Amino acid sequence: MSDLLNRDTRRAAARSSRVSTGPTPDQSRTLAAVAFKTSGLVVVIATTLVLITLVSVNSDLTGTLGAIAGSWFAVHLVPLSIGGTSMGVAPMLPTLVVAWSVARTVHHAVDETTDRRMVRWVFAASMAGPLAFTAIALAVAKDASTVIGLSSPNALVAFSWVAGVHAAASGTGLILARWDALVIDRHLPDWVRALVAPLVRSVSVLTAGGAAIVLLALLVSWDTA
């Protein structure tokens, strides 16, 4: 009788351990936000700008989806060919804004007490969402190539650029969120911990200032054109 009870107890413990390996409902919501928040905002903003542009020039909406897909690729610096002409280097400002948003979302999803399993889930979610959007954009661009002059980019190149942008941004957010814990775990000197905060603040100010100057220059050139 005692053996049966022990076996039942072990089975129940094994089942509970298997159940606990998955994310909790709160963690699932956090992971969904990490995966889709920034990518969804990029698609919404791109859709709005494309529609405003097409309506303002009294154009029909043919190729709208292709233009949205092209915007997604351009934001992530994926090389594009439109009408047989290869685009040069895309503006970095949209890419920096996307990277900042990803890093900020990831930074808020973890802290110094977050376990490593959740950290891995957050990083995986930050990659899964954008890659899923990229797969959809590739399919849309391929379909739109018969309507407009947009050539679908190489799939490997597209996935590599998108993964690189989001991996760098997500890694930055994770490091900043867990910096103190990393310093303690690695037994690094205190001056290393004190160095990062002003360094990040200085880089952020320089990036924001450069972005503001670029935006102002674009507006001035637009007005004088």
Q: Going across the major beta sheet, what is the strand order?
A: 2-1-3
The count of β-strands is: 3
Helix and strand string, N-terminal first?
HHHEEHHEHHH
Domain count: 2
Cα-to-Cα separation, first versus last residue: 90 Å
Kindly report the average pLDDT value: 77
Q: What kind of sheet is the major sheet?
A: 3 strands, antiparallel
Q: What value does the Rg take, in angstroms? A: 23 Å
Flag low-confidence runs: 13-19
Structural class: mainly alpha
Number of DSSP helical runs: 8
Q: Assign a percent range to the helix content.
A: over 70%
Give the overall form.
globular
| Strand proportion | under 5%
Please provide a written account of the structure.
With 225 residues, the chain is mainly alpha-helical. The protein has two domains: 164 residues, no CATH class; 37 residues. The protein has a three-stranded antiparallel sheet. Helix 4 crosses helix 6.
Please name the defining characteristics of this protein.
single chain; 225 residues; mainly alpha; three-stranded antiparallel β-sheet; 8 helices; 3 strands; globular
Chart the SSEs and their pairings:
Elements: H1 2-20, H2 25-56, H3 64-75, E1 81-82, E2 85-86, H4 92-109, H5 116-144, E3 150-151, H6 155-177, H7 179-185, H8 190-224
Antiparallel strand pairs: 1-2, 1-3
Helix pairs in contact: 2-3, 2-4, 2-5, 3-5, 4-6, 5-6
